[in-house]
Write a structure and sequence with these properties.
The chain is globular. It has about 475 residues and is α/β, with parallel strands linked by helices. Strands 1-5-4-2-3-6 form a six-stranded mixed β-sheet, sandwiched between helices. The protein has a six-stranded antiparallel β-sheet with strand order 16-21-20-19-18-17, with helices on one face. It has a five-stranded mixed β-sheet with strand order 8-7-9-10-11, sandwiched between helices. The model has no long low-confidence stretch (mean pLDDT about 95). The chain folds into three domains: about 150 residues, 3-Layer(aba) Sandwich (Alpha-D-Glucose-1,6-Bisphosphate, Chain A, domain 3); about 200 residues, Alpha-D-Glucose-1,6-Bisphosphate, Chain A, domain 3 (3-Layer(aba) Sandwich); about 90 residues, Alpha-D-phosphohexomutase, C-terminal domain (TATA-Binding Protein). It has 16 helices and 21 strands.
Length: about 475
Amino acid sequence: MSNKPIIFGTDGWRAIIAEDYTFDNVRRCARGIAELFQKKGIADRGVVVGYDMRFESEDFAAAVAEVLAGAGVRAYLCTRSEPTPVISYAILVQKAAGGVTITASHNPPVYNGFKVRSDYGGAAEPETIAELEQLIAGVRPEGIPTIVRSEAEKSGLIVALDPSDSYIRHLASLVDLEAIRQAPFKVVVDAMYGAGIGWFPSLLGGSRIRVIQINGERNPWFGGINPEPITRNLGKLFETVKAVSASVGLATDGDADRLGVCDEHGDFIDQLRVYSLLALYLLEVRGLRGPIVKTLSTSSMLDKLGKLYGVPVYETGVGFKYVAPKMIETNALIGGEESGGYAFRGHIPERDGIVAGLFLLDMMVKLDKTPSQLVEYLFSKVGPHYYDRLDVHFNPAERTVILDRLAQAEPTTLVGTPVERVNRADGFKIMLTDGSWLLVRFSGTEPIMRIYAEAESLARVQQLLQAGKAIAGV
């Protein structure tokens, strides 16, 4: 067994299956969860346990449930693979102490993971995660009390749970499903071999709208790609949209809490534009008002929308462990991040690729515009914005050296534009006087350094990205 400490990154603990991600370590995590909720005095409310389509996910989830049962904590164990937002919503329905999802989200196929959710259905706060890590560190795999699943089910300590029906009923309160069903759209949905398989066809099928699903079967190798809905992984979606003359293309990641979008031409609509479109939809189409919460890697278009519609905009560190608490604190209308995860008031403070996709379809219906026309409409409000990201793999041994370089960097200009301010709260972000920005930060789940940039032209974005590489010395 590996002796590496179990560290939760941006959204959970993730590791390579059979190397660090073992049944022993998953059981340690489960025991830590049981002790955490017992310390908080809420363990008697039970814990929702779900899983995705990755290799052995259902068996890792069963192991979690058996450990919880061994600690006298009831486990509501999902009967099949479910999207993370469906599992999170089930926490509210069951009034549970929290939840666990066995998933590595968008990570490569060799990974699996362990996501933790609080009783409000969103990512656990950083303080809670720090406490959980300490508890797990004190757990040794030998001697962890467990109750075999069949016996725990007889005693009521493991309860089979199908969370989909309550989630579907809730959707009807969030969006006009019937209006979408009757739209003359042809929608291509890429389930990316993940937990989102079947959801859009089931919700919208059988009506005027036509839903074409691709990559809709279980494949733990994800067809040789990472199940992350970004340009390099969505070639099949783009080609299918063009081949069938579809109205739009939607993609959900491995656990369906993120959304990727392409327009009617098969061209990718980047995540910053999608987030800004969703904010515009709520503010203008729905006429709602409330704060916007964004991470520091997300678009300055949101700041402009905030000023235009008279709502405050709050910026947090990267990850929903920061976004969710801020949404609750401010009663935010929407929260989101650059990775394609968006959350909405009246739902859960949790990324939901299904709801985000439905909202985008409803925006197309209500404004009678194609996706490319929606982007032009957004630009008519805030001006043109372009964005890109570089993922730079690095030797973990060089991490400290790169961090030192970033800590010592004090640029006064970047690609010919004066620096307005530098934010080191979560990475290294440079804001320029013309509104463009550059961010360099390390992934919380992989040995990758990410460099982000947003500007008024693609050429300028590429200049900023290269400047970021130079500052980091990679």
